[in-house]
Amino acid sequence: MSALAKEQLHTISDIERLSEGERAELIDGLLYDMAAPSVIHQRLVMQISGEINNHIRRNKGTCQVFPAPFVVYPFGMEDVYNYLEPDITLVCDPDKLKNQKGCSGSPDWIIEIVSPSSIEHDYYRKLLLYQAAGVREYWIVNPMEEKVSVYVFAPHSSYKLYTFQETIPVSVFPDFHLNIRELLPAV
Asked: What is the tens place of the pLDDT at every residue in 59-93?
Protein backbone atom coordinates (compact mmCIF):
# COMPACT_ATOMS: atom_id res chain seq x y z
CA MET A 1 0.00 0.00 0.00
CA SER A 2 1.83 3.06 -1.16
CA ALA A 3 1.19 6.74 -0.67
CA LEU A 4 0.36 8.50 -3.90
CA ALA A 5 2.02 11.90 -4.38
CA LYS A 6 3.29 12.39 -0.80
CA GLU A 7 4.49 15.92 -1.58
CA GLN A 8 0.99 17.42 -1.51
CA LEU A 9 -1.96 17.10 0.82
CA HIS A 10 -5.07 15.54 -0.66
CA THR A 11 -8.69 15.92 0.36
CA ILE A 12 -11.87 13.90 -0.02
CA SER A 13 -12.50 15.71 -3.31
CA ASP A 14 -9.42 13.89 -4.70
CA ILE A 15 -10.99 10.58 -3.67
CA GLU A 16 -14.24 11.56 -5.38
CA ARG A 17 -12.34 12.25 -8.63
CA LEU A 18 -10.82 8.77 -8.85
CA SER A 19 -11.74 6.73 -11.91
CA GLU A 20 -14.50 4.15 -11.57
CA GLY A 21 -13.13 0.99 -10.00
CA GLU A 22 -10.11 2.79 -8.53
CA ARG A 23 -10.08 2.85 -4.73
CA ALA A 24 -7.93 4.67 -2.23
CA GLU A 25 -7.93 5.78 1.38
CA LEU A 26 -6.95 9.14 2.79
CA ILE A 27 -5.08 9.46 6.08
CA ASP A 28 -3.98 12.89 7.28
CA GLY A 29 -4.11 14.18 3.71
CA LEU A 30 -2.00 11.39 2.23
CA LEU A 31 -3.63 9.24 -0.43
CA TYR A 32 -3.03 5.46 -0.31
CA ASP A 33 -4.04 3.17 -3.15
CA MET A 34 -5.88 -0.04 -2.33
CA ALA A 35 -4.96 -3.36 -3.92
CA ALA A 36 -7.65 -5.83 -4.95
CA PRO A 37 -8.44 -8.25 -2.11
CA SER A 38 -7.49 -11.93 -2.21
CA VAL A 39 -9.89 -14.87 -1.96
CA ILE A 40 -9.00 -15.57 1.70
CA HIS A 41 -9.47 -11.88 2.47
CA GLN A 42 -12.98 -11.93 1.02
CA ARG A 43 -13.87 -15.21 2.77
CA LEU A 44 -12.84 -13.73 6.10
CA VAL A 45 -14.79 -10.53 5.49
CA MET A 46 -17.94 -12.46 4.58
CA GLN A 47 -17.73 -15.02 7.40
CA ILE A 48 -16.85 -12.56 10.17
CA SER A 49 -19.45 -10.00 9.01
CA GLY A 50 -22.05 -12.76 8.88
CA GLU A 51 -21.28 -13.93 12.42
CA ILE A 52 -21.50 -10.39 13.77
CA ASN A 53 -24.75 -9.75 11.92
CA ASN A 54 -26.23 -13.03 13.19
CA HIS A 55 -25.30 -12.10 16.75
CA ILE A 56 -26.98 -8.71 16.41
CA ARG A 57 -30.14 -10.25 14.94
CA ARG A 58 -30.33 -13.05 17.57
CA ASN A 59 -30.11 -10.46 20.33
CA LYS A 60 -32.42 -7.96 18.62
CA GLY A 61 -29.62 -5.42 18.70
CA THR A 62 -29.60 -2.07 16.99
CA CYS A 63 -25.94 -1.95 15.90
CA GLN A 64 -25.23 -2.39 12.19
CA VAL A 65 -22.33 -4.20 10.54
CA PHE A 66 -20.98 -3.11 7.14
CA PRO A 67 -18.44 -4.99 5.02
CA ALA A 68 -16.22 -3.01 2.62
CA PRO A 69 -16.62 -0.98 0.60
CA PHE A 70 -18.14 1.24 3.28
CA VAL A 71 -16.81 4.72 3.97
CA VAL A 72 -15.75 5.91 7.40
CA TYR A 73 -15.11 9.59 8.07
CA PRO A 74 -13.42 8.96 11.45
CA PHE A 75 -13.51 12.57 12.66
CA GLY A 76 -16.81 13.45 10.96
CA MET A 77 -17.75 14.72 7.52
CA GLU A 78 -16.22 18.16 8.15
CA ASP A 79 -12.71 16.62 8.22
CA VAL A 80 -11.66 16.51 4.56
CA TYR A 81 -8.28 14.83 5.20
CA ASN A 82 -9.40 11.39 6.42
CA TYR A 83 -11.46 8.87 4.45
CA LEU A 84 -11.23 5.14 5.09
CA GLU A 85 -12.84 1.94 3.87
CA PRO A 86 -12.31 -0.63 6.65
CA ASP A 87 -12.92 -4.26 5.80
CA ILE A 88 -15.62 -4.57 8.49
CA THR A 89 -17.26 -1.71 10.38
CA LEU A 90 -19.71 -1.86 13.28
CA VAL A 91 -21.77 1.24 14.06
CA CYS A 92 -24.05 1.37 17.10
CA ASP A 93 -24.99 5.06 16.99
CA PRO A 94 -27.64 5.62 14.27
CA ASP A 95 -26.86 9.36 14.23
CA LYS A 96 -23.50 8.52 12.63
CA LEU A 97 -25.32 7.02 9.63
CA LYS A 98 -27.73 9.88 8.88
CA ASN A 99 -25.88 11.28 5.85
CA GLN A 100 -26.15 8.01 3.84
CA LYS A 101 -22.55 8.38 2.56
CA GLY A 102 -21.07 6.24 5.33
CA CYS A 103 -20.16 6.60 8.98
CA SER A 104 -19.63 10.18 10.14
CA GLY A 105 -17.53 9.81 13.28
CA SER A 106 -15.81 6.90 14.94
CA PRO A 107 -17.40 3.45 14.58
CA ASP A 108 -17.60 1.16 17.60
CA TRP A 109 -15.60 -1.72 16.11
CA ILE A 110 -13.37 -1.97 13.07
CA ILE A 111 -11.80 -5.12 11.65
CA GLU A 112 -9.07 -5.05 9.01
CA ILE A 113 -7.91 -8.17 7.18
CA VAL A 114 -4.21 -7.64 6.58
CA SER A 115 -2.53 -8.51 3.29
CA PRO A 116 1.16 -8.36 2.35
CA SER A 117 0.65 -4.91 0.81
CA SER A 118 -1.27 -3.46 3.79
CA ILE A 119 0.88 -4.48 6.78
CA GLU A 120 2.29 -1.02 7.55
CA HIS A 121 -1.02 0.62 6.77
CA ASP A 122 -3.14 -1.60 9.05
CA TYR A 123 -0.68 -2.08 11.93
CA TYR A 124 0.55 1.51 12.18
CA ARG A 125 -1.27 4.25 10.28
CA LYS A 126 -4.79 2.95 10.82
CA LEU A 127 -4.10 1.81 14.37
CA LEU A 128 -3.05 5.32 15.41
CA LEU A 129 -5.87 6.99 13.49
CA TYR A 130 -8.59 4.70 14.86
CA GLN A 131 -7.33 5.19 18.40
CA ALA A 132 -7.21 8.98 18.00
CA ALA A 133 -10.71 9.00 16.46
CA GLY A 134 -12.24 7.14 19.40
CA VAL A 135 -12.95 3.72 17.89
CA ARG A 136 -13.82 1.42 20.80
CA GLU A 137 -12.30 -1.80 19.42
CA TYR A 138 -9.93 -2.55 16.53
CA TRP A 139 -8.99 -6.01 15.23
CA ILE A 140 -6.27 -6.82 12.74
CA VAL A 141 -6.83 -10.30 11.30
CA ASN A 142 -3.66 -11.68 9.74
CA PRO A 143 -4.37 -14.77 7.60
CA MET A 144 -0.68 -15.18 6.68
CA GLU A 145 0.27 -15.74 10.33
CA GLU A 146 -3.17 -16.94 11.46
CA LYS A 147 -3.19 -14.36 14.25
CA VAL A 148 -5.57 -11.64 15.40
CA SER A 149 -4.36 -8.48 17.13
CA VAL A 150 -7.11 -7.08 19.35
CA TYR A 151 -6.93 -3.48 20.52
CA VAL A 152 -9.58 -2.23 22.92
CA PHE A 153 -9.41 1.55 23.30
CA ALA A 154 -12.49 2.24 25.41
CA PRO A 155 -13.29 2.28 28.22
CA HIS A 156 -9.68 1.18 29.03
CA SER A 157 -6.88 0.52 26.57
CA SER A 158 -5.64 -3.03 26.18
CA TYR A 159 -3.96 -5.24 23.59
CA LYS A 160 -3.91 -9.00 23.16
CA LEU A 161 -2.68 -11.29 20.39
CA TYR A 162 -4.76 -14.39 19.58
CA THR A 163 -4.30 -17.30 17.19
CA PHE A 164 -7.03 -18.39 14.77
CA GLN A 165 -7.59 -21.44 17.00
CA GLU A 166 -8.46 -19.38 20.08
CA THR A 167 -11.88 -18.06 20.98
CA ILE A 168 -11.66 -14.28 20.97
CA PRO A 169 -13.89 -12.18 23.24
CA VAL A 170 -15.54 -9.12 21.75
CA SER A 171 -15.42 -6.11 24.04
CA VAL A 172 -18.24 -4.29 22.22
CA PHE A 173 -20.54 -7.30 22.85
CA PRO A 174 -19.48 -8.92 26.16
CA ASP A 175 -21.61 -12.02 25.46
CA PHE A 176 -20.07 -12.62 22.01
CA HIS A 177 -16.90 -14.49 20.97
CA LEU A 178 -15.36 -15.41 17.62
CA ASN A 179 -13.14 -18.30 16.63
CA ILE A 180 -11.64 -17.66 13.19
CA ARG A 181 -10.65 -21.31 12.65
CA GLU A 182 -14.25 -22.42 13.17
CA LEU A 183 -15.40 -19.90 10.57
CA LEU A 184 -12.90 -21.15 7.99
CA PRO A 185 -12.05 -24.80 8.60
CA ALA A 186 -10.33 -25.02 5.20
CA VAL A 187 -7.85 -22.20 5.93
From this structure: 999 999 999 999 999 999 999 999 999 999 999 99
**What Cα–Cα distance (Å) separates residue 135 from each residue in 15, 24, 78, 91, 118?**
23, 21, 18, 10, 20
Residue ranges making up the domain that contains 52: 37-68+84-183
Q: Would 116 be classed as within a structural domain?
A: yes
**Sequence-ordered list of residues with C-beta below 8 angstroms from that of 170, at least 6 positions apart, any chain:** 109, 137, 176, 177, 178
Distance CA 45, CA 31 (A): 23
Q: What is the pLDDT of residues 26-56, one digit of tens each?
A: 999 999 988 888 899 999 999 999 999 999 9
Residue 170 lies in a domain: yes
Q: Is residue 125 included in any domain, yes or no?
A: yes
What does residue 16 show for φ and ψ, rounded to 5 degrees?
A: -65, -20
Q: Is residue 79 part of a domain?
A: no
Are the beta carbons of 81 and 11 closer than 8 angstroms? yes
Q: What is the chain's length?
A: 187
Residue 185 banded pLDDT, cuts 50, 70, 90? low
Q: How far apart are CA 108 and CA 66, in angstroms?
A: 12
